[in-house]
């Protein structure tokens, strides 16, 4: 075909009912009717007043009506009264030319209720909307399964919280008593045993605390308490335990804060401290040699959708065991450990990072990770903080 012929072909108008031959028009109508009839979901059409004009067998089965009865019915007659407003809004939206998706319930002539997800599409003829074409998917079973999963998850959360509370009280007594023994003048062998008991009890106490914390987050019971916060005071509080721990492990540790980090800001100091503490504790735990570097930077929010005054980024970089690329995908799932073969000091139940990620989300922030197996990891906790002229209180809220 020559270029001129290509141009002529491109300018040829698309077939319309007016330009189609009788055979082509009949074939097109037959294809539409077949598609309408054999759809697996309830399919129907209503006119501009909301009265049904057509329906396939699945729609008739769902409503319990015959086709003749359907053609005399208004959509309001088959919709649950509590869902009429939503369906009416969807109908009006489609009549304005915009497709809509609405969740509702259909009540059949026999009183059977079917939960549906309805897609309403405008029917346009000659440039005007003359009705609505609807496709309703039966989501009753899917919703039932979802509700059962939510109930099971709520039961699991309640169980964990209840058991953890019951364990924490006697455990606190054990930790306290073992600490007294460690500080007493025992012979070397009993002293060694007391330290083992105290260290194990302390680890169990942290585990119980993590379970309670995660249960609260899952149940949406965690409440932020925003107040004036000094980011540098938070870091001083973290450094007070992190530096001695790093030195005891033979690791170098550095804290750097750039000039763009506000001295006085507005946020939840306790939760910021908690996330940073977990990230640094993880870095120290999984780093056997080398260093852990903490860098804090500030940057304007600008036109960010989460706009507050300043983004503060807490970057924790280590030279530890690292995480494989496939494990990074599951990093923030609860009860999943990055190091599945963890032993000794690496033991844990995989809640620390799940808690950090959820707390970051709660603060409208984000937690990201970059890691190379065998070389180390970098975790960045970014959180938006409001600027304030008032000085932060002396406590970091740890």
From TrEMBL:
Query: Which stretches make up the PAS domain?
Result: 28-98
What this protein catalyses is: ATP + protein L-histidine = ADP + protein N-phospho-L-histidine
- Which GO molecular function entries does the Swiss-Prot or TrEMBL record give? histidine phosphotransfer kinase activity; phosphorelay sensor kinase activity
What residue spans carry the Basic and acidic residues bias annotation?
A: 1-13
Q: What is its EC number?
A: 2.7.13.3
SMART domains for the chain: HATPase_c (SM00387), HisKA (SM00388), PAS (SM00091)
Domain Histidine kinase span(s) in chain numbering? 162-387
GO cellular-component term (any): plasma membrane
Protein's name in the database: histidine kinase
Identify the InterPro entries for this entry.
HATPase_C_sf, HATPase_dom, His_kinase_dom, HisK_dim/P_dom, HisK_dim/P_sf, PAS, PAS-like_dom_sf, PAS_4
Give the EC class as a word: transferase
Q: Which UniProt keywords apply?
A: Kinase, Phosphoprotein, Transferase
Q: Name one Pfam family in it.
A: HATPase_c
Question: Residues annotated as region Disordered?
Answer: 1-22
